[in-house]
Amino acid sequence: MSDKETSRQTPPSVDGGADGKPVVILGIESSCDDTSAAVIRDGVLLSNVTASQAVHEAYGGVVPELASRAHQQNIVPVVDQALKRAGVAREELSAIAFTRGPGLMGSLLVGVSFAKGMAAALGIPMIDVNHLQGHVLAHFIREKEQVQQQPPFPFLCLLVSGGNSQIVLVRAYNDMEIIGQTIDDAAGEAIDKCSKVMGLGYPGGPIIDRLARQGNPEAYHFARPSIPGYDYSFSGLKTSFLYSLRDWLLSDPDFVEHHKADLAASLEHTVVDILMNKLRRAAKALKIKHVAVAGGVSANTGLRNAFLDHARRFGWTVYIPKFGFTTDNAAMIAITGYFKYRDHDFCPMEAPAYSRVAL
């Protein structure tokens, strides 16, 4: 998972906690429209502060320029609050972990630049984190006085968000292989676009989720693309939904208003069924019974219920993250940084941000 093209350097003053001192990691996440900072001490989460950006709702999607400007306004107070809530002084930090990519370049640059400046001022190492790796490792976040079941290696992880739909074979925290992924739209992207076509607002995921609880998932049927292997495709579903809705509106201009709950339930059911079908096949072929879900779409009620259903039907042990760890958050960056710190896996000050990269 670490960037092979970037040389690694281990500051001689860093001992990875071997001297008995606690390992305290500040995590910074700024890949899209959430500015987040978290503090982890010896693998235990002390604080996780996130500032969201409501400005994008008026535009029906994230506007990169507005996002980067909001990050500049939020980064200092968010980091300050994370340290205060954790009861940690800056001088106690062992390293700073930050999202290096993938994401919106303008947003990433704010977090990367802040991390570089703070690390240089404190004389501590930097740890670059792949945003997607962070989502997978969110399952290893430990909170004070709470016992959270963590998946054993190897396990399968369905990583689903607005920009990603992947089946990941996780052999170790730093050994992940994508065995299936979308060849076009991601699941979350398809849901958001269908919600927009229905005029339901942005972001569409939570709206569809809420309406789906009131509708009939078998009311309507949409295209389910047949893609070889474990790869996904959601563009056909999106097109099928669009054309079907167009025809229904011709006969009833108020069709969406009259049937929005059933439309939402049927859309969600189709997306979840496509996701679980490939995941089920992969788990069977690899003979893996420990299966996790991660990413923003893992907050969807229908998908969570499908995981619980598969646990009963197929004997899976499933791992479903807390709602607070499904969306972009710095806790997942900090825990990944903690694992990398123990391996002395640091990055040089000149490491640039990247907008696109695979696991």
Q: How does this structure look, described?
A:
The chain is of the alpha/beta class. It has 2 domains: 24-148 and 326-342, ATPase, nucleotide binding domain (Nucleotidyltransferase, domain 5), CATH 3.30.420.40; 155-323, 2-Layer Sandwich (Nucleotidyltransferase, domain 5), CATH 3.30.420.40. Helices cover 40% and strands 18% of the residues. It has a 6-stranded mixed β-sheet with strand order 5-4-1-2-3-6, with helices on both faces. Strands 9-8-7-10-11 form a 5-stranded mixed β-sheet, with helices on both faces. The model is unreliable at 1-16 (pLDDT under 50).
In a nutshell, what does this entry contain?
By secondary structure, the protein is α/β, with parallel strands linked by helices.
Please identify the structural class as seen in this structure: alpha/beta
CATH superfamily of the largest domain: ATPase, nucleotide binding domain
Rg is 21 Å
Helical amount: 40-55%
**What is the helix tally?**
9
Strand order of the largest sheet: 5-4-1-2-3-6
Q: Could you say what the CATH architecture of the largest domain is?
A: 2-Layer Sandwich
State the end-to-end CA separation.
Answer: 5 Å
Q: What is the C-level CATH assignment of the largest domain?
A: Alpha Beta
Shape: globular
Instruction: Please name the CATH topology of the largest domain.
Output: Nucleotidyltransferase, domain 5
Query: How many domains comprise the coordinates?
Result: 2
Largest sheet: 6 strands, mixed
State the total count of DSSP E strands.
11
Percent strand equals: 15-25%
Q: What's the pLDDT, averaged over the residues?
A: 91
